[in-house]
């Protein structure tokens, strides 16, 4: 029964996130490792982060990028929406890199 509930919750979560896709880009990835069954294992270079179902981790090396562990080693990687700058302009640096989502997605726009 618990496995069915977990899968139902995962399906519901994925559906909700797909509906809100206008705010972010989302991908489902396998972060599983046989040494840590049921957990998401994130290798961040100098250390390994172990996530349980429902936990999230922010990747410090990328702007506004999170991994949400959805169970059985699978996680949702979400980042800012991929959009184009206004015509004749370009995106520069992130304005609020360390803020929480979605504020961390704000970027400086430079128009030539």
TrEMBL record:
Residues of the Single domain: 40-111
Keywords, alphabetical: Secreted, Signal
Predominant subcellular localization, coarse grouping: secreted
One Pfam family matching this protein: SVWC
Keyword Secreted: yes
Domain of life: Eukaryota
Stored InterPro entries: SVWC_dom (IPR029277)
GO cellular component, one term: extracellular region
Signal peptide (from-to): 1-24
Subcellular location field: Secreted
Name of protein: Single domain-containing protein
Species annotation: Drosophila kikkawai
Lineage of the organism: Eukaryota, Metazoa, Ecdysozoa, Arthropoda, Hexapoda
């Amino acid at each position: 029964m618990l496995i069915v509930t977990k899968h139902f919750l995962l399906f519901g979560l994925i559906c909700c996130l797909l509906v809100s896709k206008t705010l972010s880009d989302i991908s489902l990835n396998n972060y599983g490792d046989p040494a840590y069954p049921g957990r998401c294992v994130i290798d961040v270079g100098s250390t390994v982060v172990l996530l349980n179902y429902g936990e999230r981790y922010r990747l410090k090396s990328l702007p506004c990028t999170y991994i949400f562990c959805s169970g059985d080693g699978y996680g949702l990687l979400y980042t800012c929406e991929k959009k184009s700058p206004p015509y004749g302009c370009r995106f520069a640096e992130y304005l609020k890199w360390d803020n929480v989502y979605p504020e961390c997605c704000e970027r400086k726009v430079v128009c030539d």
